[in-house]
Amino acid sequence: MQPLATQFADQTFQYTQLAREGDLAIFEQRHKARGTCRYEVVRIRVVPENRWPNGEVSPEREVYPGANSWGRLGWTCWSIDQAQALLAQLQAKTSAA
After folding, report:
1. Domain range for residue 54?
2. What angle do CA 56, 69, 46 make, to 5 degrees?
């Protein structure tokens, strides 16, 4: 399985993993132009291998939540303390289940 990168970027933000416990993680989201940062608490999912119509194969891999799953698999926090508290809360729910 291909693990999720601990650092990656999109057009606007640079993401850096700060903590990970199982499938839960905290990423710093830093704005490239302004330098401002927020924190994202995410539940990392595993997607199975996929064979595309052109014959190419995408391996089984971990993925970051998409925009449509925000609020279910990803949350934005304004401070690291808030992100750490949310991570602990989600861990507690996961271990109680």
Report:
1. 7-96
2. 45
User: pLDDT tens for residues 62-77?
Assistant: 999 999 999 999 999 9
pTM listed for this prediction = 0.91
Q: Is residue 1 part of a domain?
A: no
Radius of gyration of the chain (CA): 15
Kindly provide the residue ranges of all beta strands, DSSP E only, lying in the chain, ordered along the sequence. 7-9, 13-21, 24-31, 37-43, 45-47, 50-51, 57-58, 61-63, 74-77
**Coil, strand or helix at 4:** coil
Q: 97 pLDDT exceeds 90?
A: no
Domain count for the chain: 1
**CB of 61 within 8 A of CB of 82?**
no
